[in-house]
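Colleagues,

For the teaching module next term, I've prepared a clean inverse folding example: a structure given as tokens, and then the sequence designed for it. I'd like students to try predicting residues themselves before seeing the answer, so please don't circulate the second half yet.
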């Protein structure tokens, strides 16, 4: 591959500012602690520095060292407030390898960072339909009949569209989780309420599966394995709180529709 590295020589402050900004975006988009450490260390080594990172749930503490282990700069910053995004996570990781392999210069890396963190232009309707079909497939996986799958599809459609609406208006995630679970469970209960099919319980139970916070649970487990206990506990607690809000919405919907839990 052709090396396109130019002769620009950024100052220490500029390099540190890039790395701190990069770290804030990477943590904000849902990266695990171990990925953050590896990516940032990769960039720092390519630019002749060493970095020590203390990762906390609501801020990062970063110290930069030279080859003689002299502290060059220390900074504390919060992560960026951005939705969890696998695509942004992948783009940022790819950028760290491009810098490490000398494929791009510092100025090009700055431009690439802005492109990597730019909001992706996703078709909301395509995403919504994919989520609906995925949740209906879960219904089939748990033994739901065709009518139950159709009910789950409609319940997911209503709940996920409500989720998009509330996210655009910066609604609290916990309240959003409750409202979406309530909406989907009320619609999911129609299978049993009107005796439409033979697997009403499956339809109701799977109507809210699209809301399960799988990424926070997985990230907390990854952080636990790599001994980032504070972040692991924080992410696990967030996931438990969101799951509790989901359960509260589901139970409220069952109560409103007079559907017994047992």
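(Answer key — instructors only)
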């Amino acid at each position: 591959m052709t090396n396109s590295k130019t002769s620009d020589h950024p100052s220490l402050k500029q390099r540190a500012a890039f790395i701190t900004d990069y770290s804030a975006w990477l943590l904000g988009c849902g990266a695990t602690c171990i990925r953050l450490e590896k990516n940032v260390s990769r960039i720092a080594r390519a630019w002749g520095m060493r970095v020590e990172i203390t990762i906390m749930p609501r801020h990062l503490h970063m110290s930069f060292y030279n080859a003689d282990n002299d502290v060059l700069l220390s900074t504390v910053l919060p992560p960026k407030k951005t939705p969890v995004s696998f695509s942004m996570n992948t783009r940022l990781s790819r950028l760290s390898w491009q810098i490490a392999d000398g494929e791009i210069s510092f100025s090009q890396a700055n431009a690439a960072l802005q492109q990597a963190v730019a909001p992706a232009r996703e078709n909301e309707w395509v995403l919504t339909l994919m989520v609906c079909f995925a949740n209906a497939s879960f219904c089939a996986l748990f033994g739901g009949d065709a009518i139950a799958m159709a009910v789950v599809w409609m319940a997911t459609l209503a709940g996920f569209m409500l989720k998009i609406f509330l996210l655009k208006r910066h609604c609290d995630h916990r309240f959003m989780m409750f409202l979406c679970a309530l909406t989907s469970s009320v619609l999911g209960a129609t299978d049993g309420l009107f005796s439409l099919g033979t697997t009403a319980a499956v339809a109701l139970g799977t109507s809210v599966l699209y809301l399960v916070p799988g990424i926070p649970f997985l990230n907390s487990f990854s952080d636990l394995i790599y001994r980032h206990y504070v972040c692991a506990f924080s992410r696990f607690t967030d996931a438990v709180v969101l799951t509790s809000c989901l359960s509260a919405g589901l139970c409220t919907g069952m109560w409103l529709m007079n559907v017994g839990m047992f």
